[in-house]
Amino acid sequence: MRRIPPSLIQICLLALALPVVSCSVLDPVGGAISKGYENTVSYCNAYYNAEKLFGEAEAEALTFRLAQRGQPVNPGTPAQAVPANTRAKFTQVIDKCSSILSFHETSALVDDALLLIGKSYYYQAEYLKAERKFEELLAKYPEGPLSMETELWLLRSYAKNGKRAEGLQLGEVLFAAATEDGEDDMAGQALLVLAELERTNDPTRCMQHLSQAVRLLDDDLECATAQAQVGDILRSLGRNEEAVEAYLIVPDISSDTYIRFYAIVSAARTYGSMKRYEDALELVEELLDDYSFAPHWNEIRLEVAEAKERLGWLDQALVDFEYIDTTAARTEFGTRAAFRRGWILEHTYGDYRGAYAAYARASAFTVAGVSPMAKQRENALSRHSALHRQIGVIDSILALPPVEVPDSVAKARPAPNPDSLLSVKTKAQFGLAELFYSDLEVPDSAVYYYRKVLAAPADTGRTPRVLYIMADLSRTQNLGVSPDSLYGVIIRDYPSSPYALASQDALGIPRPERVEDPARALYLDAEQVLEQGNYPEAIASFERIIELHPTSDYAARSRYAIGWIYEYVLALPDSALTQYKTLVADYGSSSFASRVRPKVAPDEVAPAAVVDTVAAPKPVTTPLERRRTEETDTPPSPDSRRGQATDTRTAVPPKPTPIKDED
Known about the structure:
Blueprint: H1 6-17, H2 23-67, H3 84-103, H4 110-123, H5 127-140, H6 147-160, H7 164-180, H8 184-198, H9 203-216, H10 220-236, H11 240-253, H12 257-273, H13 277-287, H14 297-310, H15 314-327, H16 332-347, H17 352-363, H18 371-398, H19 407-412, H20 418-439, H21 443-454, H22 463-473, H23 483-493, H24 498-507, H25 518-531, H26 535-548, H27 553-569, H28 573-586, H29 591-596, H30 638-641
């Protein structure tokens, strides 16, 4: 049998004697034992696991942020703070630490738990909750060992929550305390947040903070990032030479691939803004020789191609753009390359077919600021092709020699009316003119087709608009006529057109005061007679308006009303056609003439005045500044102004009604 050591016997006797010893003697000892037990239990049960889990989640969050650098951000889509699985880990950290606060509130790990909760909220982008936890920690332990680190995280939360004043005050205090304690990295971290707070309000002060932080921070990547931000600010201030110098320091600070790539490309773009395209090209071409930049080669190649385009090396640029478009299809860089290729083909080479194909590829993948423009130009070139085909078909039909056909065949399938074909051709030419003027921005081609419209044998009703646009184009094109003279023609020959008022404004002619049209009352009376079914008297009333007030807007409306009665009430189409022809001949620029013009044979309409003093345009290469002029020749139907619904299912058109006066 083993002999029991005397020391063990003494310990047992002491333990047996403890209950009879006064509690007041051993209270401090018991409290210490109890406190240690509490700390041990809370650490093993909760904090150890929470701290370990937080370390994993923080590493994942930082890795995710590094991977997100340079990635395109879709407008309207909120940026993801951390991946979903990382966010779940932070949530578990918050739960575990909350258990410590609830069940082990006397533990020495309460401050550590509060800090982990605040950090977890911060990484989850719950900045207001994070701010509250950091403030709670500082309130409970203002002089604790975690106070300086907590102040840094609180400072970051202030910046995220837009509390600039509180952030500046706390940042200055933290920077001073860290500097005094020799905590250079902590001082540098404070400066980074102070720079963020000053970025918008005081860029110069922001740049000073960043420059100072570069000298204090321990981490090379943070130093390099701050230095690159100095370059960004200098560039935004127009100090391009200094910006290039700042960018080119970055590769010497850190070996991180992305920050080196960002700095060198930014320096190249800054050279581009200085029109030093060869220097820009030299910088980015060197990156293609370094395999470490392989993940960024598509963007680098795009920079190379754009530099060549700016240098005027268009053949080489087209080859590079096509290569990027092919190898990086349906990516941001492939889309941008396709758009630039389409732009060169359209504006420099006039290759609309090739440009259309390039724009179609650029619009197939959504890139903010590029795809909508590509789609617009794709649609414009598609319409250009369709209008050209239409004109070509009409020309081929008109060029056919006359062929005698039997009467039976002619009755069954009448030959196309040449005048109708010419009318359709003029409409297509007007469409091309508008396209070149508004969408493709080729002013000399716009002038060419507008002159075709003016030379049409019949008034198309578009003459006032064409003349107005020609006046605008004559400011940049040599048309042999001044804008003022064209405005004068519009005012003289088309006084009822909306473009007459616009022409008066262009010439500085004050608009006449609006007065009550005396024909309006007569028209309302005639309309009442029409509604009563007394059609002969209504026709006579409308004729009286035309006779007494031939220049009134109600004269054109009255002529239209007479034709309408003949066509749809009295079933006299020949009489209606006569009225419509007179309407087009006398009031060709009115909206009512536009309604009936398709019913009137073009060769029987008196042609409107056409300005034949416009000289042939000289070719230009500078795109005209876009001026979109909305077509206002055809106002809303009279019925819509009176609030009357029109049933489009009936074969009978709406009854002509007076225009409600507008203020």
